[in-house]
Specification:
220 residues, alpha+beta, Arc Repressor Mutant, subunit A, Alpha-Beta Plaits, 2 domains, four-stranded antiparallel sheet, two-stranded antiparallel sheet, 10 helices
Length: 220
């Protein structure tokens, strides 16, 4: 994969992550309420929020300029039933002051984008929210994660190890961890975000010698 393709792939993965976060957060909401920082950042990362929400004196004024054919507008209107939009606007302005979002000029409009600081915060929220579900029926496959991260990247190595433990992985030995449940997407994301493409390997196998103890540990 060339550099341009790799960069676009990372962008696509990040936007997909934001989409999943927005969906999760709104599913948790039962009525209009104040938007939390994590929710606004995810919406910006998904491309749902626009500069008019910061600068327009009233949201109703900003809505005059919306494009009904724009999918982002339609989606924003869908989510508006969950959030108090005045609060959302206030949170967005605060995030701009904190340099987590930035307003950029394009030939057609002003857009709101995440800064690197904002992206890092989204990732931290995402990792904190990671949860691997246990399926009703085990598919008979083991997921084995092996990592070899250098001493100079000790902090990242520690984060990776602690994240694997929190996700329910069992340490086999050294830097080898095992889990019987699907987790390919989560491992791909962690590997891409921390730049560990060549340092983390994931194996999927249907057989491990003497696996009775592991099956008992995971109650499968």
């Amino acid at each position: 994969m060339d550099e341009a393709s790799s960069k676009q792939n990372s962008i696509d993965q990040f936007q997909e992550l934001c989409s999943q976060l927005v969906k999760r957060y709104t599913e948790e909401a039962r009525e209009k309420r104040n938007a939390k920082t994590r929710e606004v950042l995810a919406m910006v990362g998904k491309g749902l929020l626009f500069a008019g929400m910061i600068f327009a004196p009233k949201l109703s004024y900003a809505y005059k300029f919306h494009d009904e054919n724009n999918p982002s507008w339609r989606e924003l209107e869908k989510y508006s039933k969950y959030y108090n939009l005045t609060s959302l606007k206030r949170t967005l302005k605060r995030l701009e002051k904190q340099r987590m979002v930035v307003v950029k000029e394009t030939p057609d409009e002003q857009v709101v984008e995440l800064t690197e600081k904002g992206k890092t915060r989204v990732i931290k929220y995402a990792i904190g929210d990671f949860d691997i579900e246990k399926p009703d029926k085990w598919d008979g496959k083991w997921r084995i994660v092996i990592y070899d991260v250098s001493e100079k990247s000790k902090d990242i190595r520690d984060i990776l190890r602690n994240t694997l433990k929190r996700l329910g992985f069992l340490k086999l030995q050294g830097s080898v961890y095992i889990l019987p449940f699907p987790c390919e997407k989560e491992i791909r994301f962690l590997r891409a975000f921390y730049g560990l493409d060549s340092d983390v390997t994931m194996l999927v196998t249907s057989k491990i010698e003497n696996d009775e103890a592991y099956r008992q540990y995971f109650a499968i």
